[in-house]
Design brief:
The chain has about 290 residues and is an alpha+beta fold. The chain folds into two domains: about 210 residues, Sandwich (Jelly Rolls); about 80 residues. The protein is built from ten helices and 13 strands. The strands form three sheets. Strands 1, 2, 3, 4, 6, 11 and 13 form a seven-stranded antiparallel sheet that branches. The protein has a four-stranded antiparallel sheet with strand order 5-12-7-10. A hairpin with a 2-residue loop joins strand 8 and strand 9. The longest helix has 24 residues. It starts with a strand and ends with a helix. Keywords: Dioxygenase, Oxidoreductase. GO terms for molecular function: 2-oxoglutarate-dependent dioxygenase activity; iron ion binding.
Length: about 290
């Protein structure tokens, strides 16, 4: 982890706090709010997500004026915003977060991802501050823990990690903590009764984002185009390999499909390669051949 001190000015911290606290009191469903189980009356969110997506004008301006943009560009060549959330710890209920690695919990493993955790209030051991495991070389197995069933976490004993090896990250308001996606981290209970608000913002390299998401967009396009060829079939993104071989029975339709695929994605397999293996993997792998 890298600790950058006093990156965000008091004025900009307050602007972010005002936005987040207002959003947490009247959470829009688009912010995917989370609440404490015991909070049946006040319904104040302890976590809100998709902040930038919800208000891009405000946050684009905030990123630029807070110098966060410049800090991000120091770490990533061509950054792309992946996640933007805020954690609000008001009290001890459910506020302990066990050791985990973001990369192990995401649907896609973004190795280039960097988290920029902005402390909008002081973050200390007693008010729910962060702790982390310094060795980030290994992606550990993650399992559900009945003591904290919200998501999978790292079993310390099973993985040979002692609590003495965990390091507290004590931050002043305005500090930014930066860590790569493999860094195992968590946070303490808020025992102080004081607010602890942090804003994790995750960026990845744009090239890696497109590479990992390319196959998803490819599946959507293939399914749509196969439906136009076989309109009476129940084609979905999950059964493409069942219908792609049927293209080989219709030479003109197959050639037209591959030509359209090439225009859409900038590459396509050779006709004889596709006939030999008419599968999604063949279409996807043609990108590597085009770049050689």
């Amino acid at each position: 982890m890298k600790h950058y001190r006093q990156v965000v000015s008091p004025q900009l911290r307050q602007q972010a706090l005002d936005w987040i606290l207002a959003a947490a009191q009247r959470p829009d469903p688009a912010l995917e709010p989370e609440f404490d189980i015991a909070d049946d009356e006040r319904r104040e969110a302890k976590k809100v997500r998709n902040l930038h997506r919800h208000d891009p004008l405000f946050w684009d301006d905030w990123f630029a004026r807070s110098r966060l943009d410049a800090l991000v560009r120091d770490h990533l060549r061509k950054p792309r915003l992946l996640r933007h959330a805020a954690f609000i710890k008001r009290h001890a209920d459910e506020s302990y977060i066990p050791l985990h690695q973001d990369i192990a919990l995401w649907e896609k493993r973004y190795e280039s991802a960097q988290t920029f955790w902005v402390a909008l209030t002081p973050s200390r051991n007693d008010n729910g501050g962060m702790f982390y495991y310094p060795d980030d070389r290994t992606i550990f197995p993650h399992e559900f823990d009945l003591a904290y069933p919200m998501f999978k976490c790292i079993d310390l004993q099973a993985n040979g990690i002692s609590r003495e090896q965990l390091v507290d990250a004590e931050l002043d308001a305005g500090d930014v903590l930066v860590w790569p996606a493999r860094t195992a981290h968590g946070s303490h209970n808020n025992r102080s009764g004081q607010l602890r608000i942090g804003m994790p913002i995750v960026f990845v390299e744009d090239d890696e984002f497109h590479q990992l998401n390319r196959e998803d967009s490819m599946k959507t396009w293939i399914a749509s185009n196969l439906k136009s060829v076989f309109p009476d079939e129940a084609i979905t993104e999950d059964n493409l390999d069942h219908y792609l071989p049927q293209l080989c029975d219709y030479s003109l339709k197959m050639v037209t499909f591959l030509a359209r695929f090439s225009r859409q994605f900038g590459h396509a397999p050779k006709i004889h390669d596709f006939i030999r293996e008419p599968r999604l993997a063949t279409l996807s792998a043609s990108d590597a051949g085009a770049r050689r």
